Amino acid sequence: MDREELLSATPEGSGAPKKQESPLVSLEKDLEFYSDAIKEVAIEIMVEGISAHPIFIAHQHQVSIGEMILNKEELNTDWTIQASTLEEFVEKGIISKEKKDPFLKVYKKPEDFMCVFVIVPEGANFIYYPYKGFKK
């Protein structure tokens, strides 16, 4: 799912369209703000040989995967970001072993895009967000 789809998504069965702003609008703003820091961590994960496939978790509550790198409370933003890896996602069963290869086929170049696992009350999904300065 592309970020455009997520940003324009409306809750199913909501009847009349509501003027409530999607939380993903604030996520896009935060990802733009966090871009350089996230890219730095992604490169560090790859250079240190931890993983060739960094994954970042964006959430507004508590999650028990990855390591917190950007705290919304400390930074006065809407989203907290945690750093993880494909290997941890497979180990914890978020991505099943059978889905690992199909996931890798769509995984975008980590030097250009951050892979973000977005967790909202309605569920969770992966998005790829370009780092600042990257032209699609």
TrEMBL record:
It comes from the Bacteria. This is Uncharacterized protein. Residues 1-22 are annotated as: Disordered.
